[in-house]
Amino acid sequence: MASPVVLTTLLNRRRKWLDFPAARDPIRRPRRLRRSPQEGRMSNATPSALRGQPRDQAGKAREAFGGIDKSSVRSTSDGPDFHAIRQSPEFRRLRRRVKSFVFPMTALFLLWYVGYVLLAAYAPEFMAQRLYGEVNVGLVMGVGQFATTLIITALYGRFARKHVDPEIEEIRREAVGDQR
User: Fold this and answer.
1) 16, 27, 113, 171 - which has most CB atoms within 10 Å?
2) Whole-angstrom Cα distance, residue 36 to residue 121?
C-alpha cells in the first residue's frame, strides 16, 4: 500500500498537469452560455438576438435570408401565466374532479383484469364451463374485457363533456381575459 506522502505527491502532480495555462487564457476559453431574461433559458445567441432586435449597421439595408425579416425569438409574456393557473382554486378543483373519476375507474378495471387472469391461471375448470354451445366462461370474460374498455372510454367521454370541458373553458377565458 502506498504511503500518504506518495499519494499526496501524485495528487499534486496530477493537479498541476490538469491546470495548464490554456484553461486560464481568456482568449481560448469556450464561449459561455448567456441567460435570456425573457425565457430564463441558456442560449449561445447574441444579446441583440435574445432581445429580438436586428443587428443592423448604420446606413446598411437589412437583408433577410429567404425573405424572413423577423427574429425567431418570441416574447413569452404574451401567453397565459400557467403557474398562476396551476395554483388557482378552480384548477385544483378541476384536477380533484378528474382524479375522482379516473382513479376509481382504473382501480375497478385493474381488479377486473387481475381477477380474469387469476381465474384463468388458478381455476381453469371454472373458465372452461360451457355457457352456450362452444362458448365458455373464459371466452365471455375475455370479450368482457374489451367491452369494459369501450364502456369506460364512453363514460369518460361523457364525463369530460359534461363536467371537465366547461370548467376548462372557464379557466381558459379567465386566463386569456375573454369576456364571452
Assistant:
1) 171
2) 59
Helix, strand, coil in percent for the chain, rounding step 5: 65, 5, 30
- Reported as a single tens digit per residue, the pLDDT across 115-159 is 999 999 999 999 999 999 999 999 999 999 999 999 999 999 999
Q: Is position 19 within any domain?
A: yes
Establish if 57 belongs to a structural domain: no
Question: What residues make up the domain containing 45?
Answer: 1-51
Give residue 59's identity as a one-letter amino acid code.
Answer: G
Q: Is 43 helix (H, G, I), strand (E, B) or coil?
A: strand
Which among 127, 145, 123, 144 is positioned nearest to 136, based on CA atoms? 127
Does the pTM surpass 0.90? The reply is: no
Q: Please, what is the end-to-end C-alpha distance for the chain in angstroms?
A: 80
Classify the C-alpha dihedral 93-152-142-132 as positive or negative.
positive
Q: How confident is the model at residue 84 (pLDDT cuts 50, 70, 90)?
A: confident
**What's residue 174's pLDDT?**
85
